[in-house]
Amino acid sequence: MWRCSRPVPVALRRLSGRSAELRAWRWGSTTACERALQYRVGEKMHGYTVSQVTPVPELFLTAVKLDHDGTGARHLHLAREDSNNLFSVQFRTTPMDSTGVPHILEHTVLCGSQKYPCRDPFFKMLNRSLSTFMNAFTASDYTMYPFSTQNPKDFQNLLSVYLDAAFFPCLRELDFWQEGWRLEHEDPTDPKTALVFKGVVFNEMKGAFADSERVFSQHLQNQLLPDHTYAAVSGGAPLCIPDLTWEQLREFHAKHYHPSNARFLTYGNFPLEEHLRQIHEEALSKFQRIEPNTAVPPQQRWEMPREHHVHCAPDALAAGSPRQTTVSVSFLLPDSLTGPRAANWSQIYLGQKREGSFSNILIGCHSGSFASHALPSRAGAWCERDRGVGLSARCAMDFLITDARSTHPRIFI
Asked: Coiled-coil annotation: which residues (predicted)?
């Protein structure tokens, strides 16, 4: 979230616990911040227009927000005197089914691109690069591709690989079979053996859903937000993954992996102008603005509470224990408690479990509100102290989760 910009001296005076001399020194010594503060709102460079410049002396950085004129892509640069520079490109990916198309696409775009058509250029860079971090992630409503490095030339090389992989991937059908799903003989050398499903993502999600906690949390999100993309399993449900086709994968990429649906982030002390020039020339200049229509609408509020029961395999590490049940009471927060207010609300009420805090009153003891009201009266004898309360911000809509794990099934009798 963006901070309200105010003059640096005012911000410095409001910092507590440090001397004015130290605070002035730490701000004046950050060369990258000084360069960023010279940008002006409305200034144009390499196809971008500066829309906001915000000093954040508490974090030793200056935030610069830019918009790409041709595509509408947004860019956030965090200028800080840190040699470990970071780049990330994010796409809002909102699947409406559980075939795992954003997850399989995340894998497949890294299997070769127009400029780098070799097999798996991403993994080939792991032992050829000076990077300090390289990865890719698929979440419920976005997919991101981050890397970091301390070497300027390595940064340019990795940026070229990432841009070409994200915007111009080969998306070969063979790679789809490899990364997504395929039918293969149980013994590839014996065509008489049974056909089985295989695939990198397919096998990965089979392992993920072997974890009962993962199954529980996934069902919790699907049931609490059932009207749009959060009702689907973005990583892919093993029973649904075989429904995905190669053509659907390519269509999903064309719609979601477009600069108009992208957010760029850069961080560190490397010059911003060089980042913008390379991103514009190698990727954004080759696209026109579109309306991606990937926004997630607000969840319709319920008039009555709902219940849902999930059955999963027992925990293999707790074999023989009857305490295999998790009980949860979750609340979708009102819009007034989302965004910046949600962070404050979480900090005030759900921070440390100190005596007298909301979390301690709610679940900290057997006589607390959760144990005495959310659970049956006999639950105290069958509930271990593995309880939690938290504010989930994994989605566009935040929700409060209270749960008691390792409980005995007799509390439901």
From this structure: none
